[in-house]
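Incident review: delayed structure delivery

Summary: a single-chain prediction request sat in the queue longer than the usual turnaround. Root cause was a stuck worker, restarted by the on-call engineer. No data loss occurred. The affected request and its eventual output are reproduced below so the record is complete for anyone auditing the incident later.

Affected input:
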Amino acid sequence: MNSNYRLDMSYIAGLFDAKGTISTSKSSILGKVWKMEMTMADKNVMELVHETLGRGQLREKKIMGKKHWRWLCRNQDCLFVAKELWAHIITKLHKIEQIIDHYQPDIQDVNDNLVDLDLEREKRK
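Output delivered after worker restart:
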């Protein structure tokens, strides 16, 4: 892949809204563990997503005998990705905010829980 080419975060957020999943599991050592993953048949797109985000793992996975590519990240990598996607995500916004709240619970004061998404998106352009 061409490491000089990066995808736009809004494009990745759209892909993740459509194809991605967010889940949790419990670990006896770490407690609650967040996991984000996305699976697609297009290897080039998945490699670009992985290179652009710079986090997680990209592995081949067979689904009904066909090759697919699965990008997966956990724990603090989820926090980094969630913060990158936050201003662009639509359908999975609540789960993204749960990840941020889990790993950085003191990021907002009690009276600072409203965010102007349009203003935030403009800042990140």
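Verification: The chain is about 40% helix and 25% strand.
Action items: add queue-age alerting; document worker restart procedure.
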